[in-house]
Fold GntR family transcriptional regulator.
Amino acid sequence: MTQPAQTPTPPGKQMLSEQVYAHLRDAIMRGRYAPGDALKPQDLAREQGVSLAVVREALVRVVGEGLADRLPNRGFAVPAFSDRRWQQLAEARRTIEPVVLRMSVERGDVDWEARVRAAHHRLARTPVYAPGEGEFYTAAWAEAHRLFHRTLLEGCDNPVLLETFDRMWTASELARRWSAHRDPTRDGIGEHRQLEEAALARDADTAAAVLARHLTLTAAALRDGEGAGVNEGEGVGAARS
């Protein structure tokens, strides 16, 4: 039986949905919504001057990125600190990423070494916080951070593993931001420097161990700090993984 053709989304509605999605994602990332806060479609539609259909489309995208939950009979909400997903994601990353880093150290060529050095230099030189960027670290620092971690793994030369990293990174972005506030004294600069040094020294054992510890500390900040507020401090040295 022939399936009816799907009606394409009108360009105007698609543009509005993109705008609402970008606004909502930015608001969650900057801490304008606290963990567990409801995301009410009616309120968002009124604030943004758009239809409920446009808002719901944007909310579905945010849910797909792990930045919100769709709760049965309760609508949408920002995830809670105590959500098991954060520890499950941390476990998955600790299981997979050190193995991929080991492969990367063993297989990476000279060009990979140059990219790792450049990515670390960019990360070290990018300001963590900036006026007007909200409670959490800047978008520029977030991108430099992602690029550094991904570049470390790119020497593995396995697109499937890198796609897995990309999905886990996106899903854990909110937890990284919360974790930074809960452990503002953590030496993230030092941890990233250790990762670069071990990778470029071709010390796969040390690189894998440093990365595993780096990932563990982020998850521990959420687990050990349950019940505390997000805005506990903004130490520039705070680490994220």
About this structure: The first strand starts at residue 38 and ends at 39.
